[in-house]
Write a sequence for this structure.
């Protein structure tokens, strides 16, 4: 391996297909291509194999390894091959996956800078555990495991040469553990995809209170994302007498039940399951042109790209006060949060905003300003500069 190689070791696993083919996600590949374009040297993907025939990702693609402009090493992270790949790199970037617990120490011993990327705080990981419908003893065991893993994460952050925090929750939780910490907001939105102005600006909501409010949600239809609360919000809105249309985009394990719930509550034609849309050519234009307000029932604080991507469309957000959304609102008044799991309160807030379109518009404009400051180009450049700076630092000092 060449001395100036960047090794990227994601939590994502690679599906194994026909010889020479692996399964990744379209979003991940686009990110790897950006690394190749910007890094002054070779880029290697170090990734674990996924034995499953399918994944839960919505944008899976099969690619030929020899057609990719970066090297691919498929190996378990605790294998000798993976360790060798790390110690021969110029910089290694990896996440908080338990399979990577040894990476910071392995790299520090070899005097290779390791950059750790964080997304979930312990609070969020516990919320994800609680969102699953499992028996109490299994939930207890998972929570105990998460607490133990937090100790390993903290130890790795202290050893790492740098820390990159996706969203405010982990930045606020971990920034004092590492003197070389960067806050960024993950987003697929490039500068040319950002709306010039909110689509709401051209609507007649201010003069016609009976005009239906156009609502939307996009993402995985599972309990972790609060998809089981979306139809409940719609039922409450109808009871409040609010005219609306609610488009729900995505797929997941709750899709069938949501379809049945829509029918049982007589919401056909009002709440519409729109399936999975292509991000750039279908979803972004649809939200930008046809939606007034995004409804986000996320029951945990993952730093979802959905937040910035929605704001870039000129659309404000109402949602639960998980730590990611609450942190975003501290940066910018681009929406409104209610107490976690209170879908009736969420409906009441939507009803209030339906009668105050000037407030909706102000939030949409504030969100656009935030999105313009955190485009894919600007966030990616900041992250790459953060890693490149490590190449100029002496490698003889190991943090303990």
């Amino acid at each position: 391996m060449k001395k100036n190689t960047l090794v990227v070791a994601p939590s994502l696993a690679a599906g194994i297909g026909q010889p020479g083919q692996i399964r990744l996600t379209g979003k991940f590949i686009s990110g790897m291509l950006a690394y190749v374009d910007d890094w002054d040297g070779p880029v290697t993907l170090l990734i674990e194999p996924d034995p499953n025939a399918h994944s839960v990702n919505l944008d899976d693609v099969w690619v030929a390894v020899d057609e990719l402009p970066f090297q691919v090493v498929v190996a378990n992270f605790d294998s000798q091959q993976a360790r060798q790949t790390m110690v021969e790199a110029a910089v290694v970037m990896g996440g908080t996956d338990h399979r990577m617990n040894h990476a910071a120490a392995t790299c520090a011993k070899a005097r290779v800078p390791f950059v750790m990327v964080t997304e979930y705080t312990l609070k969020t990981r516990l919320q994800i555990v609680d969102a699953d419908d499992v028996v109490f003893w299994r939930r207890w065991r998972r929570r105990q495991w998460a607490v133990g893993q937090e100790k390993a994460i903290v130890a790795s952050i202290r050893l790492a040469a740098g820390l990159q925090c996706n969203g405010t929750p982990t930045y606020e939780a971990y920034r004092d553990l590492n003197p070389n910490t960067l806050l960024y907001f993950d987003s697929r939105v490039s500068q040319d995809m950002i709306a010039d102005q909110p689509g709401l600006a051209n609507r007649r909501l201010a003069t016609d209170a009976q005009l239906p409010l156009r609502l939307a949600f996009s993402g995985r239809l599972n309990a972790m994302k609060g998809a089981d609360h979306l139809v409940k919000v719609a039922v409450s809105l109808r009871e409040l007498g609010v005219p609306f249309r609610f488009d729900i985009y995505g797929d997941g394990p709750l899709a069938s039940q949501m379809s049945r719930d829509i029918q049982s509550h007589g919401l056909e034609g009002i709440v519409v399951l729109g399936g999975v849309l292509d991000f750039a050519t279908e979803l972004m234009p649809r939200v930008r042109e046809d939606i007034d307000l995004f409804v986000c029932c996320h029951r945990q604080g993952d730093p979802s790209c959905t937040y910035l991507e929605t704001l870039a469309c000129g659309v404000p957000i109402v949602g639960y006060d998980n730590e990611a959304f609450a942190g975003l609102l501290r940066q910018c008044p681009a929406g409104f949060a209610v107490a976690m799991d209170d879908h009736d309160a969420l409906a009441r807030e939507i009803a209030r905003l339906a009668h105050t379109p000037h407030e909706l518009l102000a939030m949409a404009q504030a969100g656009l300003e935030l999105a313009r400051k955190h485009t894919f180009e600007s966030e990616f450049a900041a992250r790459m500069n953060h890693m490149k700076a490590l190449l100029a630092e002496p490698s003889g000092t190991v943090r303990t």
Q: What stands out?
A: The longest helix spans residues 136-159. Residues 396-400 have pLDDT under 50 and may be disordered.
